[in-house]
Amino acid sequence: MTADLIAKIETLKATRPNNIAVQCFDPVYFGTLSNAHKSRLLKCLNSGIENPDSEMGCYACQPSDYDDFKPFFSKVLARYHKVPEGARHTNDWSLKGVDGLPEDGVLDFARLGLPALSMRVRTGRNLKDFPLPGSMTKDDRIRLEEKMTTAFKTLIAMPDYGGRYYSLTPGHPCFIDDATYQGLVDAHIMFKNMDSDRFLTAAGIAADWPYGRGCYVSADKGFIIWVGEEDHLRIMCMQHGTVLNDVFDRLKSALDVVENIEGLEFAYSADYGVVTSCPTNLGTGMRASVHIALPKLTADGTDTRAKAIAKPLGLSVRGVGGEHTPIGADGTVDISPAARFCITEAEIVTALYKGIALLNAKENQS
Ligand code: ADP
Ligand code: DAR
What we know:
This protein has helices at 2-15, 20-24, 27-31, 35-50, 65-68, 70-81, 138-156, 178-186, 198-203, 244-258, 304-310, 345-365, and strands spanning 117-125, 163-167, 214-218, 223-227, 233-241, 268-269, 273-274, 287-293, 315-318, 332-337.
């Protein structure tokens, strides 16, 4: 079994140059591991082995994986995030002194001549006392949701964060039906059916769907916490407007509340910052995005030209339904900085503002 997997990885190494996990797999290092660690590391790569077209090709399955398999993950991180091997991450939400920040510190899209946009900033968090989603049992998933259901009672009692929890777990007191679930997905509040994601399925992250999954939503629908998606928690703020600081500052304030709820302790690494399932999210776990119409750059109905222009600007282009979805009929796309690691939270949100300014100029010049 192990020999077959090693042979498959070596074949992929020769045929899949973009699959970072297989490219960084070293059979000599692998040979030095105990049988238990060999099994753990191969589990991390399963998604990339079963999906040769993967870009990253691996997920951490235990909070300690990045440290326990540092010779492997340090190569993966260096290659994907284009940082020196062994680079250490620093978290910082303070905008003060960030390069490119407007003099008054206000990231206002109206100053770029843009209308109100749909703005969203999310980060990932994993509870340190559970396996990461790729290695959770069904019981783990249900226990984590129960723990969060109790934690949400604190938020429900707070004017700024009061709301309700929606559960996909049959028998949960907050269980919702399919129509309610789909309505939340269509409103960009709830995450998509994980069973349909081949990468998450191969990684074990989608296992036991839909048990242990749900989302907490504030009364104004501007503060959301996913439970049981790619990370234990995805914590986010969303708002239709022009001042990016509004969602960024609200998320930071909300995080300060959540991180101090009794019984919640999150996984952090001294070297890598916020621990996440996917190495692409490690460090900040943050994706800051806006939905913006680029009708000229998407005139052919695809995101091809928009991606070609956005990529050199350090920007990712996603569809209006998020990752692996199509662009909007009116040319609306989801734009976000690609960087998550060895960049601070403040630098990410400033990079989004600067990136949108450049991308919007390209749209106007087209
Ligand atoms: P993530 O951002 O957590 O990596 P996705 O890219 O799949 O996950 O997006 C998840 C959901 O969030 C999707 O419904 C997507 O449309 C929505 N979304 C992302 N950014 C925005 C935004 N700026 N405005 C509104 N919805 C957004
Ligand atoms: N498709 C997987 C993951 C890429 C990053 N997206 C995440 N983590 N949602 C790949 O390895 O290409």
